Amino acid sequence: MSKQKRVLITGITGFVGSHLVDYLLENTNDKIFGLKRVNSQLRNIHHVQEKITLINGDLIDQTSLINAMNISKPDYLYHLGALSWVTPSWDMPAAYMQVNAIGTINLFEALRVTGQKPRIFVSCTPEEFGDV
Fold first, then answer.
1. What mean pLDDT comes out for the span 26-35?
2. What pTM, to 2 d.p., does this model score?
């Protein structure tokens, strides 16, 4: 296997994040860190908890993101953390904007402040682009 890289996954406890960590553990020797909210359910990753490092944090809390960058020092960042259910977004648009848009800005600012320069993957939805 290749040189061990450091990987940070936001949204690691979610559907996509949990499958990504399974894939990375099976196919790489990467050191995996996961950003998780304090009250996150861990059922999707309970089977790998001993193989990864979880960091408490929140996309809307800049201090916790800076802490996560200082701990993980990522070579790769998979940004999968978001509010993803479309229907509630119509009733709570400010919450969705805060987490999904401002949270992403906070994440990138934490990278800038700490001097981290990982390769970044940001997951998006085709809903952003409409019917093309």
1. 97
2. 0.92
